[in-house]
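Can't paste images in this forum, so I'm doing it all in text. The chain is below; anyone willing to post the predicted structure tokens underneath?
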Amino acid sequence: MTQPAPIRRAPDVPLLTTALELAARMVPVLPLRAGKLPFGNCRACTGNACGGRPNMLTPGPCHCPRPCHAWAAATTDPTTLTGPAWASAWRQTTAVAYHPGGTGLTVVDLDNADAITWARQTLPATRTVPTTRGEHWIYRGAMQSANAVRPGVDIKSTMSYARWLGPGTGTMTALPDAVRALAVRKPCTVRVAPTTATVPAPAGGGECPHRTPAYLDRGIAMAEQCITGATTAVHSTVYRTFLAVLSAHGRCGCLTDAHVGRLFAAAQAKGEGPRHCTDAWANALTRLGL
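Text version of the structure:
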């Protein structure tokens, strides 16, 4: 008679117990190590061995079949939480994080006393959770996350994670327009550093075939459309699009500041910050050996 497979027992770790309790309530969770950095949730990314960027979704050289970093690692699956990829992680974990947007919430992270005073004067009261330096104000409803929307204020919702610091106090209210308005970005004014100076000349010294205006413009327009049309996984879409553009045009020196600026502007219109754009571009250059 075939013996039943043994049931995996969860390690006796208090933070894992907390995570499993939250997951049972359909709150996507993940462990954080020192510095509030997440662990990858697949074997290839254990200890960040894949070389990906652990504090954001930009994959870097990671070739996992699905996103497994940062907020995308958050899960409600107890098998994943207790599985081999995180077996040792829980004993190094310093805090449990959760994906607010994944459970239909938005966290207004108030980092100091001045930010708390501003919130009390400006935003409707809602559930609050004390943090090390300030407070989390939690609203019902999800939105695009954004950092530094004003001094000492971050918004954590979709494509972001926040530390779990307890249920908090007060009645949770609906996400107000005043919070949504904080994430509305001004038109892009970022000056993109020149890229042509670091791109090798075409092999054989011949004229670059991509300098044909129609060919290059069509390629950039398609890349812009790809980014603009993304409805999920914006980080990954931006990175893959940058990689595709550089694969086609990065080695012949045909890209100009104006071309790269168009790509960055499209990404920022989807909510990407200048730092994320720069990191994704740099990762794509590294991936291609440029």
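The CA atoms of residues 17 and 92 lie 14 Å apart. Residues 196-287 form one domain.
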